Amino acid sequence: TNTPKAVIVIFGATGDLANRKLYPSIYRLYRNGKLSDNFAVIGVARRPLTNEDFQNNVKKSIENFDDPHIDKDEFASHFHYNPFDIQDLGHYQALDKFINALDEKHQTEGNRLFYFSMAPNFFGTLAANLKSEGLTTAKGWTRLVIEKPFGHDYPSAKELNDQIREAFDEDQIYRIDHYLGKEMVQNIEVIRFANALFEPLWNNQHISNIQITSSEVLGVEERGRYYDSAGALKDMVQNHMLQMMALIAMDPPIKLSPEEIRSEKVKVLRALRPMTEDDVHKYFVRGQYDKGLVNGEELPAYRAGNGVDPDSNTDTFVAAKLMIDNFRWAGVPIYMRTGKRMKQKSTEIVVEFKDLPMNLYYGKEHDTRPNLLVIHVQPHEGITLHVNAKKGDYSASSTPIQLSYENSSHDKMNTPEAYEILLHDCMRGDSTNFTHWDEVALSWKFVDVIADAWGKKKADFPNYETGSNGPKAADDLLAEDGFQWWDVT
Ligand code: BG6
């Protein structure tokens, strides 16, 4: 059969991500027949745990699943724990033997997947030691999945990348951007390139502006220490937001191979108009949440959070106007915004089309609106096309209507999760939905200019209330161009 076989080694096996996302994803792959019996997972972390403890953690992470034909004990028996000291070379040699033994037992053809799901300051040491102790050369394939944050600016990302590249080739490295695993983000390409309807209009002749929003309701919760040194710009814009933008704006690839798609995405990032310090203050809006009332409960301001500097200058909200300087997009503003503690949890892309050259439906009996194509990424998954049609009455008045498609709404349980898709892709050797170093480098270089400009000037924070849509300046950004944010959810 074609189901992938591998020993998966998860560094950071007791962490939040592993428990919340990775074990459930492995379970779902297994349940859906995307993973055969030929797999084993080695959980690696510092803490001394027994195999039994570890397997219990794994079972706990999948307790919400109830599939009568799956024996959870049998599933958990594929998981093994290996307490580990990253500095101790002897531990690597022992791990190597352990991998080989499990390879033998589960017949995984010598394939190894290393998953770095831990604090990034260990990535370099870990990669170097894996190589020096011979773990990166095996009978089958060896791949590395690496979690964000990938550096905190271009120089640190480059340093990290150089360290990893000492041990792994670029085509062995799978850098996770979990937005690329989302069903509707992957759908962008299909909607654009499998329809005759959109692509001919997908340019500055017919599109007036594009809006990409990813808003969250939660604050930074327990992640204050990490977040206070990152902020929304580095946490969301550098990766998820720019990735969505690249997929929306890229030219059609000559085929659907990872190399061709990546090369088109890279071209978009290269065409992003670089910002000067003055531009940053004009085209980028930063925000930080204040306290606010949500469902009768008063939630504290960002600065009052755990691990956060009480005088913090960190952005929890970013809105921006980007320009892509190429033939297709010259003159079309691409707006994006993302923030925490906003009104709703929602990720959406709105493509607004230009008005017709002449409007016949202008009297007060008519309500004609711009055509919008809305891609709903979450929580709803689908697309909506906003068009104008005749009102269903005796008149000839026009009125806005919506054509909507909702993705597998009846069976949410079976829609694959981002991490599940990405793990499966990696095991199949498909790197399409991972970020190549070239993309990471360009995104950081773009973002660094903004971070530097902001770093030089203290912001007037807090400037938006918890539960709102961000600071007013974010609305002004569009209003100055004669546009508005479409709140379409
Ligand atoms: C992560 C960020 O990459 O994405 C988090 O570090 C953010 O701060 C999260 O909350 C949002 O992901 P999603 O899938 O919930 O939109």
Could you give the topology of this structure?
Blueprint (H helix, E strand, L loop, with lengths): L5 E6 L4 H16 L7 E7 L5 H11 L10 H5 L2 E5 L5 H18 L5 E5 L6 H10 L9 E5 L7 H14 L5 E3 L7 H11 L13 E9 L8 H5 L3 H18 L8 H14 L5 H7 E4 L1 E2 L1 E3 L2 E3 L17 E6 L11 E6 L6 E8 L18 E7 L3 E9 L7 E9 L11 H11 L8 H19 L8 E2 L6 H8 L10
Parallel strand pairs: 1-2, 1-4, 2-3, 4-5, 5-6, 7-13, 9-18
Antiparallel strand pairs: 7-14, 8-12, 10-11, 12-13, 14-15, 15-16, 16-17
Helix pairs in contact: 1-12, 5-6, 6-13, 9-10, 9-13, 10-13, 11-13
The site of 6-O-phosphono-beta-D-glucopyranose has 4 residues, from loops.
The gross shape turns out to be: globular
Classify the helix fraction into a percent range.
25-40%
Question: How much strand?
Answer: 15-25%
Oligomeric state: single chain
- Strands of the largest sheet, in order across it? 8-12-13-7-14-15-16-17
**CA-to-CA gap between the ends?**
42 Å
Low-pLDDT windows of residues? none
**Compounds present?**
6-O-phosphono-beta-D-glucopyranose
Mean pLDDT: 95
Largest sheet: 8 strands, mixed
CA radius of gyration: 24 Å
Structural class, from secondary structure content? alpha/beta
- In total, how many beta strands? 18
Number of separate helices: 14
EC number: 1.1.1.49
GO molecular function: glucose-6-phosphate dehydrogenase activity; NADP binding
Enzyme class: oxidoreductase
Domain Glucose-6-phosphate dehydrogenase NAD-binding: 9-187
